[in-house]
Amino acid sequence: MHKTPLLDQLESGPWPSFIKDLKRVAARKKPAADLLGLLERSYKDKITHWKHGGIVGVLGYGSGIIGRYTDLPEEFPGVEHFHTVRVNQPSGWFYTTKALRELCDIWDEHGSSILNVHGSTGDMIFLGTTTPELEPCFAKLTAKGWDLGGSGSAMRSPSCCVGMARCEWSCYDTMDLCYEATQNFQFEMHRPSFPYKFKIKCSGCPNDCVAAVARADMSVIGVWKDDIRIDQAAVKAYAGGELKPRGGATPYAKLDVQADVVALCPTACMAFDGKTLKIDNKNCNHCMHCISLMPQALRPGTETGATLLLGSHAPILEGAQMSWVIVPFMEMETPYEPFMDLVANITEWWSENGKNRERVGELMLRLGMRAFFKGVGLEPPPQTVKTPRANPFFFWHEEDFEAEAAGRKYIK
Amino acid sequence: MALSKEALAEYIYDMVAKAQGKKNLKAMDVQKAVLKEHPDQNKNDIKFAIKDLIDGGRCVYTYFGGSYIEIPHEEGAAKKV
Fold this sequence. Notes:
The complex is a heterodimer.
Chain A: H1 5-9, H2 18-26, H3 30-45, E1 50-52, E2 65-66, E3 68-70, E4 84-87, H4 97-110, E5 114-117, E6 124-127, H5 131-143, E7 159-160, H6 174-184, H7 186-190, E8 200-203, H8 212-215, E9 218-224, E10 229-230, H9 232-239, H10 257-262, E11 270-272, E12 277-279, H11 289-293, E13 298-299, E14 304-310, E15 324-330, H12 337-353, H13 360-367, H14 369-376, H15 398-405
Parallel strand pairs in A: 7-8, 8-9
Antiparallel strand pairs in A: 1-3, 2-4, 4-6, 5-6, 9-14, 10-13, 11-12, 14-15
Chain B: H1 5-19, H2 27-37, H3 43-55, E1 60-63, E2 67-70
Antiparallel strand pairs in B: 1-2
Helix pairs in contact in B: 1-3, 2-3
């Protein structure tokens, strides 16, 4: 074992430390021992000693394996090769203990035994193995029904919230869409052919538990079209303190319906006279604040589907961008043909027009929403307008003149 | 004129071999180059020609900040384990 005085300090705090975990693995696995030594060395030198990328993979796949090497192989031979294997997670991250044991046994045999559960894309991450172990490890995984996830300039493993499995607010079956999208885009996941990464994340309601709006190029967020369902008796029970706000998940014992719900509605579309709660549903922007506070009194409507948003990413230099509404409402019913077709159109437009390492959101901003909608064959809905017009110029296109000649009328 | 399946695979292989060490080619670069010379070639044919080259081990995907298609070669960073 290497001496690790700097890392040892990380064990002194009140929280569980990854150093403690790694030391436990290091007692039986040389790569984990050398990983600690290398990390200590990086803390001292204040630079990374890893190189990543390269040629490694399994036959036929361009994704799922990320090559990693150290530049100090003589000093730390256990991490000379330390490749990462991404294993596609099940929808909603539901594992049986048997499945987890299978995965751990495979990784004990073919790798360092170190796991990351889960990576930010959602995959189960196996950290650290050598090139000769990749094919045997992959063979064992596939024999048990597992597959590799996406990496590189490819469709990444779609991920979703637990959806209808555990949540009554889910406006569509997130787990089913996630599974179907994973099956539908197998080619795009395993054979990188995009300008850069492309992530799909599915949230069942606007609470957005997988943070799709900030973390996915294609964010699919459940929403309802009709009115919020109200149980007025339960509203009274909240007002009277008989029901705890947020199902008891707050330090506050009693809800002040006027101050905590009505006054905090972002569109001011609610009113409460002490007895009855009224909602002007056409002005509701589906933020879920009221529903989250009074789950037994308010529920999403019954005409449900999803809003599709595009483009979030977080580049280091230019700052983060949230996804932008491109389809305000789409019904989400198996086999999700309109959704799959739209994703295929978007990735084709992006692949045709995108620069190397340009995310689809960056391309959308570079070429503009007009070019985007035309390119992917979508009608531009008003919900996509980010700001009102701020300059007096209007750029007419040839087809606008043709449409006028053919009788297009404008609203005055 | 569109190329046959075999001729297309050879055409792509030659393109990748010529670019080796000079320019990293992405799948879309390959597609655009094929369509420039053979505008009537079906895009799916190109996708599957690349797949055949990869599955047959004649080409490999590599990752250097982005994913590229290359001829198999010795990994520079790797020492034999």
